[in-house]
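**Fold in tokens:**
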Amino acid sequence: IAHKDRTLNPNVVGALVNFKDYSDMRKLLCEVLSFTLLPDQIEDLRDEFEKMDIDGSGEISLPTLKKVLMANAVQGSLGALTEAEVEGIFDAMRVRKTETTIHWHEFIAAGLSQCKVDDRNLKLAFDRLDSEHKGYITFKNMMDLMGHDPDMTEGTMQRIWGDSMGSGNFKDARITYDAFLLLMKGQTLDGARLIPGANGPLYTVAETSS
């Protein structure tokens, strides 16, 4: 689709800028959640993606992203953006560092704050991770979903998982749906209730009957 007007929505660009500061865990969870969105939830993001996808390849390269974002910054529709900031945006969206372009679902993940995400999306994303429907997510669940990615070695996932635990940093921790919602908001699990258990500590927020 040819876009004569490539003026970007500043709110979407703001979301991409903010995505740089997300924790690695939150970035991964945003990508998982992006696969649960329906077409009408991502319609506006699709328009913005097509403005940046100048050659219609379905991917955005760093030179293309620079060209579109810098042009918009010059036109005054955005605040001033430096080349270094654009490179930071690109690197943040590029979840798989071996890739040289941004794919559609990575773009959705970065712009997720501009989508109408509802409880259905959140529950589907949680269930996709909790594939055995245990009621909580484990480190193994994360590895099962992300482990096929050559960038996501066990060591890398251990670091991401540990960072999300805050001061707890338990590899054998189990994360309930309520605690998962904390991670989706960019918080660590320091604020969650920790319940010891034979299968590892359980992170939760809601009161749990013992």
Summary: Residues 119-204 form a domain with the Recoverin; domain 1 fold (CATH 1.10.238.10).
